[in-house]
Amino acid sequence: MSSLKIQGNPMMQYKIFIFPAVIGVLILISAVFEYVLTDLLPFNFSVIPLVIAGGFVIKSTIEATLELKKITAGMLVVLALIGTTYVGEFLPGAIVAFMMIFGEFLEELTLQKTKNAVRELVKLVPTTCRKLVDGEYKVVSIKQIREGDFVQVIPGERVPVDGVIIKGYAAINESSITGESMPVDKTIEDNVYVGSLNENGVIEVKTEKIGGDTVLGKIIKTVHMAQNNKGKAQKTADKFAKYFLPVILLSCVVVWFTTYEIMRVMSVLIVACPCALVLATPTAVVASVGNAAKRGVLIKGGIALENNAKITTICFDKTGTITKGKPQVVEFRTFDDFSEMEVLKAAAIAEKNSQHPIAKAVMTFISEKKQFNISEIPNADFEMLFGRGVRGRLGDDIYEVSNRKALTDTNGHTDEVVKFIDSQEKLGRTTMVIVKNDQVVGGVSVADTMREHVKETIDELKKLGIKRMIMLTGDNENTAQAICDEAGLTEFRANLLPEDKLDFIKELQTAGEMVAMVGDGVND
Questions:
Q1: What is the DSSP string of 266-293?
Q2: Catalytic residue list contains 317
Q3: Residue 223 has pLDDT above 70, yes or no
Q4: Residue among 149, 185, 238, 317 flagged as catalytic
């Protein structure tokens, strides 16, 4: 049989509950008030649920048979429905049809999470964008964009296409595509991907790929392919029907020529209906999926559930799975004789008007220190230094929070400053120095921090006999190595796009590994 369909509108999801519920209520009314309804109505009330449910089952079975070009488990049910209708046993026929529909309903529930993931992916694509038309950028529908068109992306907007930057610079959050937690500073000739978020800056992009050819489009296709993955046990009924149906039909013929009683023939058909087989597997899958969901684990279908016991390798996404997925200040240092308050104020003056995620992390850290009120910090003349950091001018003083490139413009710095930067960068952290009037007064490093209980979880998985555990990330190798060391993992693959992760998993599977992939976001 074909699965019950769910429309793209999320509100339409609830329709899958309505149909089996209505059939169930009608059957219950038929069974409980059979004699009362017989006196009130000129027809048997059981005909109503039989016609509705039976009609659906017959239609679905015929469609599935024509599409698959083979006999399915539903064909035996169709014969039973025809037979029960012929002999006037409407209620048993309605119950058989309801059991088939209910089995389909349970099976559909196991696919909901995957379908929701597709919806979330589609939401990453903006419906409109700014296209260069007659020398100026105008807001148009995304459907009007073609390869070679030029689009503009301002702060707070998502990139509408895969393309290359031809003008401007911006901090691009690509976590939905690459999984990299920290925004990436991009400028002319750098590639950008549809669905990524422009957090700071204005860029102009030449379109190279649209629709299904984009990185996000390929991710959506991959998820769609996974939607109808059923477990082997869930396919048993259809495989069984190929041999079971001829045997039952032959049995019916024998019973007819032996007894010449149509009711006995119908009894054989009803008893032989594979309702238990159709119901048992989806019920077990739904019970397992529901139980796991209560513990924060979402399973996309029967095939994943059945293979769970055979897992030899687990691959982990980094951002949001092993780490929290949000940049935080992890190290703060003062140099020479400068006090902590002096250094914090210098950083606040430089970073106050920046919208960069790293600046926000620094300002949050300063606020939590509670050494002074940030709102009292005056607004400096702000300047963004692309690929370096930020600078603020207040009166005759110049304040800067930048990476190691700032050291080339200072009046001198100690070995302690260089050691601080080197040690933090080796840990995969984004490291900056705080400068006041060309003198390094402090340092700060920002990183995506580890989630609670990760190391304990890894240790438990090792005890369960998992042979290999590998972290897959879009981050660089230094960051990946630092996170693995902290989490207790010994293997990782860095600088990966989602399609690269999929290719790596396929390589493991080809090598005979049974692989589980653990991730938190739609890109996983």
A1: HHHHHHH-THHHHHHHHHHHHHHHHHHH
A2: yes
A3: no
A4: 317
